[in-house]
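Students often ask what a 'structure token' actually looks like in practice. Rather than answer in the abstract, let us consider Glycosyl transferase family 1 domain-containing protein, a protein of 325 residues. Its sequence is given first.
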Amino acid sequence: MKVFINPTWTKKDKADGGIRRVSEAQWKYLPQFGIEPVLNIHEADLIATHGTSKVSIAGKPIVNHNHGAYWDRYDWPDWAHEANKQVVDAMSQAVAHTAPSEWVANALRRGMLVYPEVVHHGVDPDEWTPPEDDWGQYVLWNKARADLVSDPDDLQHLASLMPEVSFKTTIGNATPNVDVIGVMPIENMKGWIQHAGLYLCTARETFGIGTLEAMACGVPVVGWDWGGQQEIIRHGETGFLAKPYDYEALVEGVRWAIENRKTLSENAREDVLARWTWEPRIFQYAELYKRTLEWWEEPDVKVSVIVTTHNLNHYLGDCLDSVAS
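Now compare that with the structural description of the same chain:
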């Protein structure tokens, strides 16, 4: 079975983010489960689209992998609403859907009446390993963009309450205990993650691949108790989750995690090896693709059309002819 994956990256990483990591994992692991990714869409039996990506080809089943949306509790500018429209358009092309977490899936079920299969992301623990030398004495906030959900102000406020603790961030304002290291490609970012004392996860993640990468490196995670991290972090075992915007609790969590770092580090790495490798996730994708193609190729009804006819009976014949064509 051949699958066209859109988007597929062929050039060097430029801090492209989580969707790229999922696409690359699909290319790497799908062949183990009888799926051949292809670059030519016309060779494909099925098309897998990520996020807002769409294709303009008929006669092939599409599976859309949703990666979240811009939630309406925030006052987003126009570009975010346009992105949401593109997400909906991409999903409407598909005959099957996935979501990266239960909380994203629940939003889609409520808002779009689609029923995605939840496929969590994974991490390659052979690529993401604890450092050979000692860990650094800093808390890391690692995001490639700043917006209403991914807000470095959380880091800045926490740092102001803990002047004795060193923080490093990709985005924000430098202060006596905050060092801004900048957004960078993943191969450059890896060393900062591996050597972090703690990984600060305050963004309302749709899942959190960066969270898994930190855990694979034996870095405990501290953050807000919401979003994807609720489905990843085992509170008190692999990290600490505080009620959103309860900074006193977050300060307590950072201090507790530093004090108990050795145990938390070992637990985080073990949890990744037990629950968060890529192979089980890609197996889910492969099985979904096979089921979808099997359904598509069955000689059965694929679309039901409801026609309202009250006071419109004069147009019914033309309407049914249009549907049939």
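One point worth highlighting: The chain has a mean pLDDT of 95. Ask yourself how you might have guessed this from the sequence alone, and why that guess would often be unreliable.
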